[in-house]
């Protein structure tokens, strides 16, 4: 697992901000918008479409939610499936957020899934650093 990203807010504040699909375009570099949100923020089963800058629209679903300790989501798009888990650890009045991510792809796209496993965690950590800066300014 990669080094955590420090958030200068409580685990509750970091969790609530990160889990809400409406906030995603503000801190996720690959998103233009989210669409077709079904369900309440932070409740297992909530789902939405990520509208990405490259034109793909994976369907996302919150699959685990233990506020403010951990949440997981999975996304599917054609032959791709990604699972993302964030864990939140209090550090005084701050919070460390760790990310675990795994991408799989089937058929001819399988090599792209393998490559995504190398690149995606770096991108997600960069996005988390952006989210931490946004929350620090609030």
Topology summary:
Elements: E1 5-7, H1 11-19, H2 24-27, E2 31-38, E3 47-52, E4 59-66, E5 70-77, E6 80-91, E7 94-105, H3 110-137
Antiparallel strand pairs: 1-7, 2-3, 3-4, 4-5, 5-6, 6-7
Describe it for me?
By secondary structure, the protein is an alpha+beta fold. It has a single domain (5-137), classed as Alpha-D-Glucose-1,6-Bisphosphate, Chain A, domain 4 (2-Layer Sandwich), CATH 3.30.530.20. It is 30% helix and 41% strand. It holds the Pfam family Polyketide_cyc2. It comes from Nocardioides plantarum. This is SRPBCC family protein.
How would you briefly describe this protein structure?
By secondary structure, the chain is of the alpha+beta class. It is built from 3 helices and 7 strands; from the N terminus they run βααββββββα.
Query: How many separate helices?
Result: 3
How much helical structure, as a percent, in the residues?
Answer: 25-40%
Structural class label: alpha+beta
| Extended strand count | 7
What is the CATH architecture descriptor?
A: 2-Layer Sandwich
Biggest sheet, spatial arrangement of strands:
1-7-6-5-4-3-2
CATH hierarchy class name: Alpha Beta
Poorly predicted ranges: none
How confident overall, as mean pLDDT? 93
CATH topology: Alpha-D-Glucose-1,6-Bisphosphate, Chain A, domain 4
Count of spatially separate domains:
1
- CATH homologous group name: START domain
Rg computed from alpha carbons, rounded to a whole number of angstroms:
14 Å
InterPro entries: Polyketide_cyclase/dehydratase, START-like_dom_sf
Protein name: SRPBCC family protein
């Amino acid at each position: 697992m990669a080094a955590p990203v420090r958030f200068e807010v409580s685990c509750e504040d970091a969790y609530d901000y990160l889990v809400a699909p409406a906030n995603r375009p503000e801190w996720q570099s690959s998103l233009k918008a989210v669409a077709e949100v079904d369900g309440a923020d932070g409740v297992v089963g909530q789902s939405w479409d990520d509208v990405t800058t490259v034109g793909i629209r994976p369907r996302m679903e919150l699959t685990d939610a233990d506020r403010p300790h951990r949440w997981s989501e999975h996304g599917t798009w054609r032959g791709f499936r990604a699972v993302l888990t964030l864990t939140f650890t209090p550090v005084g009045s701050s919070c460390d957020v760790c990310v675990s991510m795994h991408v799989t792809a089937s058929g001819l796209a399988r090599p792209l899934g393998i490559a995504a496993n190398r690149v995606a965690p770096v991108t997600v950590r960069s996005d988390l650093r952006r989210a931490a800066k946004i929350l620090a300014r609030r």
